[in-house]
Amino acid sequence: MTVSTPTLSSTPILRRALRVGALFTVGLIVVGGVAGYLVDSWTGVTSAVIGAAMAFVFLAITAASILIANRYYASPLFTALFFAIVLGAWLLKFVIFLVVALLLRGQPWVNPAVLFLCLIVGIIVTLVVDMVVVVRSRLPYASDVALPGSGRVLPNVEKESANGHIGRESSPEDSSPSTKA
Fold it and tell me: How far apart are CA 91 and CA 74, in angstroms?
């Protein structure tokens, strides 16, 4: 008998956002490359490609961190792991941005204006892509909830007990005596 981890409803949405974001990044590279070439020849093209690629990398790091964190859904430490992974990815993005900005500063083969504009357009496009993908997704309001009788119980989800009552699974920490007012 194999134990399978549940696939969360956000997983296909994030994968779709990555695919659509990659397509729009390719489009931005083409459009930004043409505009960059008109502004500053091949230096502009290089700058446009770097700006668009940076925007996609930032989108991909966020989506990938959530996809990786979702793999730990069945763990009792899911919430802590999820936020640790996502926060770690955010810090990684911040460090990558600072390192890339410092490395590219003053380079003769980079046009700062083209790079900046492609980066800003790329970030706006990836935010719009994320929004459109989420809005168009068919995600129920109560997602990732196990239904009684389905045989699948997820952590911290109410389930039907042997006597027919529906309630939360109790753990040793929940059995402490409580005082009534």
Answer: 25
Q: Cα 91 vs. chain centroid, distance in angstroms?
A: 14
Cα–Cα dist 133/24, whole Å: 13
* CA–CA separation, 160 and 169 (whole Å): 9
Pairing of strands 166-167, 159-160: antiparallel
Phi/psi for 124 (5° steps) reads -60, -45
**Interval 70-98: pLDDT, tens:** 888 888 898 999 999 999 999 999 999 99
With 0-12 / 13-18 / 19 or more C-beta atoms within 10 angstroms meaning exposed / middle / buried, residue 81 is middle
Query: Worst-scoring range by mean pLDDT, 17-21, 36-40, 172-176?
Result: 172-176
